[in-house]
Amino acid sequence: MRRDELTGTVFNIQHYCIHDGPGIRTGVFVKGCPLRCLWCANPESQSTHPQIFWEERKCTRCQACIAACPRKALFFSENKICIDLAMCDGCGRCAQICPSEARTIAGKTMTCSQVMEEVLEDRLFYGTDGGITVSGGEPTMQPDFTRALLAASKEAGITTAIETCGYTSQETLAAIAPLCDTFLYDVKAVNPQKHRACTLRYNQPILANLRMLAASFPQCDIWIRTPIIPGYNDSDEDMERLRDLAASIPTCSQVHLLPYHNLGEGKREQLGDPAAFTAEIPSAEHMERLRDIVQGCGKPVY
Description:
- By secondary structure, the protein is an alpha/beta fold.
- It folds into two domains: 3-48 and 107-297, Aldolase class I (TIM Barrel); 51-106, 2-Layer Sandwich (Alpha-Beta Plaits).
- The chain is 32% helix and 23% strand.
- The protein contains eleven helices and twelve strands.
- A hairpin with a 7-residue loop joins β1 (7-17) and β2 (25-30).
């Protein structure tokens, strides 16, 4: 198959991004993630398959979606449309039939050329630093599609970046690295027990891959990024471990501490997922104190 015909499952293409790598960028968000972060801001990114959002305030309770569902995954209970997530395969028929657009589908199949058409529409804004950032989800869960996007972008003369949690094989990461200028490398927690508790995965492969990137691909700029979740990974010890990790990665040029926000909570409800997560939004003073600790790595901390 030709590269431009390769397909992937994309749930968003975001234009004029200024926080996803150098310059102004176009973010391509692909579905599928091996982690299950409690605070995930994009829960629709976790599954590799399309999923259905239901916005209750738009729903007229006409029940057309229930009649249209071929798998009988929808049912009416307590004056609302409920979904059996185990039965839903994300076919999208309920979204297509919904007269009030209360149901929408997250995720669609796109070819590399279709994505690049949208990316290159933004080319005027990129300048010398901007370009494409492939995010997710986790781009390495769609490795062929991610490589195709990065290669096409390189051929078009625009810079490339991916946002990755690093939980993949070294072979997969090594195949992507030569096509990537910047890695936005997410380290959820350096403490392995905390990482397991928050994401359902230990972080040994993540840290091993980070060190492999630095040793084998020195041309790749690495930004280490850590979400700050009060009560989970924001202790002084957590920041000291992060400081020491960043100091040990020679190709890490900067560290970003990202304060928790609660934008993912409403999305979980719209997906029909009863799981709930709440945490305090960290204060500006708390974030500044944590940055002061990490500053000891000798690199800019944002």
